[in-house]
């Protein structure tokens, strides 16, 4: 234990005193130079780390944006047209699947109980849907239906059986 000068009144106090016995100020011992330097140093390190982290994030963001822009700019008009056509095709496909699923749902005994289990779009355009719903006896049944582009129900075994296609189950969000 050492004696130091109170930071408030300047009188001698113990460096461990909680309050100055002369003026009553809390923590009367002035902060040691060492403690102050350590605190300042830690603070500076923290600030530098934060600034660096933020600027690195910004760098990555602008790099990603520049890369995207570069790729976009390097595309030929043909490429761009192809991509647009691809997107339009996907959208049309999705809409076609949704309208077929809606028609399927509406055709069931209890459309409110309709729950899509699986929807796969085949390369020939057939939609192979598996769904659950209650029948007229209120029993839950699982059914398979192969639906052509024109909404006609076609033979499951011929168009869907043992085949694979594009998973369109996410279309149920639009039902
Ligand atoms: Zn004092």
Structure explained in plain terms:
With 175 residues, this protein is of the alpha+beta class. It folds into 3 domains: 30 residues; 42 residues; 85 residues, no CATH class. The chain has a 5-stranded antiparallel sheet with strand order 6-5-4-3-7. A two-stranded antiparallel ribbon has the order 1-2. Strand 4 and strand 5 form a beta hairpin. The longest helix is centred in the first third of the chain and has 42 residues. The chain is elongated, with a radius of gyration of 36 Å. The protein starts with a strand and ends in an 8-residue tail after the last strand. Zinc ion binds next to loops.
Pick out its properties.
single chain; 175 residues; alpha+beta; 3 domains; five-stranded antiparallel β-sheet; two-stranded antiparallel ribbon; 3 helices; 7 strands; elongated; binds zinc ion
Structure described in brief:
This protein has 175 residues and is an alpha+beta fold.
Strand arrangement within the widest β-sheet reads: 6-5-4-3-7
Using DSSP, what is the number of strands?
Answer: 7
> Which range does the strand content fall in?
15-25%
Largest sheet: 5 strands, antiparallel
Mean pLDDT: 93
Number of domains: 3
Question: Segments where pLDDT lies below 50 for 5+ residues?
Answer: none
- Secondary-structure element series: EEHHEEEEHE
Discrete helix count: 3
C-alpha end-to-end distance: 78 Å
């Amino acid at each position: 234990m050492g004696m130091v000068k109170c930071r408030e009144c300047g009188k001698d106090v113990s460096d461990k005193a909680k309050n100055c016995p002369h003026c009553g100020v809390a923590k009367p011992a002035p902060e040691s130079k060492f403690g102050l330097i350590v605190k300042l140093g830690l603070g500076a390190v923290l600030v530098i780390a934060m600034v660096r982290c933020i600027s690195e994030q910004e760098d990555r963001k602008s790099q990603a944006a520049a890369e995207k822009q570069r790729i976009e700019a390097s595309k030929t008009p043909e490429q761009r047209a192809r991509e647009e056509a691809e997107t339009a095709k996907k959208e049309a496909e999705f809409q076609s699947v949704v309208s077929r699923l809606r028609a399927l749902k509406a055709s069931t005994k209890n459309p409110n109980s309709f729950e899509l289990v699986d929807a796969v779009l085949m390369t020939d355009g057939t939609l192979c849907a598996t769904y659950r719903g209650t029948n007229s006896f209120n029993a839950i049944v699982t059914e398979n239906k192969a639906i052509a582009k024109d909404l006609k129900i076609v033979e499951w075994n011929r168009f869907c059986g043992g085949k694979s296609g594009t998973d369109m189950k996410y279309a149920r969000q639009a039902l």
